[in-house]
Amino acid sequence: MSLGAADFTYVTTMIRQRSSIDLQPGKEYLVESRLAPIARQIGETDVAGLVARLRRGDAALTDAVVDALTTNETSWFRDAHPFDAFSNHLLPDVAKSSTTRQINIWSAACSSGQEAYSLAMLLLDWLPLHPGYTAKIIGTDISPKMVERARAAKFSQLEVNRGLRAPYLVKYFEQQGRDWILKQPLRDLCRFERGNLATPAVGVPTCDIVFLRNVLIYFDLDTKRTVLTHVRRVLRPGGFLVLGGAESTLNLDDAFQRMELGKAVVFRHTGGKA
User: Fold this and answer.
1) Of 11, 149, 198, 238, which sits 20 to 30 A from 258 (CA to CA)?
2) If DSSP codes are grouped into helix, strand and coil, which group holds residue 197?
């Protein structure tokens, strides 16, 4: 049974209110395909039955629906070039301008943690060569389920096969049955918390580098500007914002200057306001 217009509007309005994700008409199949397994799990014959329960105010079901419709696509060292820029350009620049020798990095919309832990692996390559520096990565995500998965640092064989460099698997993981667990030194570099990008960041320190990749594309224009404002308030002047390959701050926030670093594009906080 296809998702009715009224039910689609109800679900997408709820998702927008809870996560700021903008699901426009034409996404009915995506919504139905994501919610059908939940409907079966709770004993409903179709998504319409699930929506009827949502309308009655089922809080636990609401959380499950928001989680299902939040895109959690991720992998290790995804797209590669931004990570090369991180090691070869961003870290040296930040270190040169740092007065505290403490480097803070925010992995925003971190999903199950692969991005943050990929950055941590590169930091553990870099830190021994630069004694006196310390670093911390904070990952945030709107999904409590993803935050808990990131904290657990346990990944399936399929997940470690997606982009993880073989030497890092040997160096930083221990096998536990069919899963792989990250070793403590790597986990100690990272902290994961729940966070909504459409609201001011809570518990995120002033950062030198922010990774906010493949997220803005899901927001409308006003929400994109709001998200970038919240990022700018956390990112120190001179710090770097790393977006997805199809994303830009152009016509959204003039406080960011576009820079090409090798094959990666990053945005530097100039110190101004939007």
Assistant:
1) 198
2) coil
Sign (positive/negative) of CA torsion 43, 46, 47, 48?
negative
Q: What is the tens place of the pLDDT at every residue in 199-213? A: 999 899 999 999 999
Q: Which residue is it, tokens 């008409």?
A: 25
On whether the pTM is more than 0.70, the answer is yes
d(CA 183, CA 110): 19
Nearest-10 Cα torsion for 247, 107, 172, 123: 90
DSSP per-residue letters across 35-80 = HHHHHHHTT-SSHHHHHHHHHTT-HHHHHHHHHHHS-----TTTTS
For residues 218 and 79, give the distance between their C-alpha atoms in angstroms, rounded to a whole number: 19
Coil, helix or strand for 91? helix
